[in-house]
Amino acid sequence: MEETLIYGRNPVLNALEKKPDRIYIQKGLSDGSIKKIWAKAKALDIEIRERGKSRLDEMTGGENHQGVVAYISNFAYSSLDDMFHLAEARGEDPLFVILDSIQDPHNLGAIVRTAVAMSAHGVIIPKNRSTEVNGTVYKTSAGAVDRMLIAKVTNINRTIEELKAKNVWVYGAAAEGDALNEADLTGPVAVVIGNEGKGMAKKTKEHVDKLLSIPMPGGFESLNASVAASIFLYEIVRQGHGRKKKI
């Protein structure tokens, strides 16, 4: 079975409930959160191995591992049905984030973290030409990936049509769109965030219900993908998402 490498104290601590196959802790470390990881891992009967810092550096490719690395069976992706069921269980209108070929795992991690904070019901990514959930995503999200349903789909445009058939209004983030703050973002909503460099694909733009842009009086033409997602999600919440839907 393939494994995902997770590193950093908070990501590993948050992932312990998923029972990593093994944990590597830097020799000589026993402070604060490392002590918590030791104790919880032992209670869960998770294998712990001590290694020198250089070995952990090698495992993570020089990333800031903070003295702890874990290997866990690959992330379990969810389905669209899982996301709709979650919204129903919460008594809320569905709120989804669709990522059109986001390739930087730091962006995916940051978007997932915001999606959790804004009470979204799922993040949707394509199987191809997109980053997957990996150790960098875990660390950037501060472990939020374990609190968010993430679906990996074969075709983004087909997924958009499926959502529209279920009465979800799909908005796309694009510079040429109408002003975000003037749109009605109530009810079941999905927002599409495009690739870091190219933005949304032309065909994807043709499938969304409406294109929206973030007003930027300072003059910039675009924002980082994770920043744009945060602004869209905040505006959706400001307009009422998260309140119980009316029956």
Describe the 3D structure.
The protein is of the alpha/beta class and 247 residues long. The chain is built from 9 helices and 10 strands. The protein has helices at 9-15, 32-43, 53-60, 80-90, 105-117, 135-140, 156-165, 202-207, 225-238; strands spanning 3-7, 22-26, 47-51, 68-73, 95-99, 122-126, 150-153, 169-179, 189-193, 210-213. The protein has a 6-stranded parallel beta sheet with strand order 7-6-5-9-8-10, sandwiched between helices. Strand 6, helix 6 and strand 7 (150-153) form a beta-alpha-beta unit. Helix 1 (9-15) packs parallel to helix 2 and helix 5 (105-117) packs parallel to helix 9. It is elongated and about 55 Å long. It starts with a strand and ends in a 9-residue tail after the last helix.
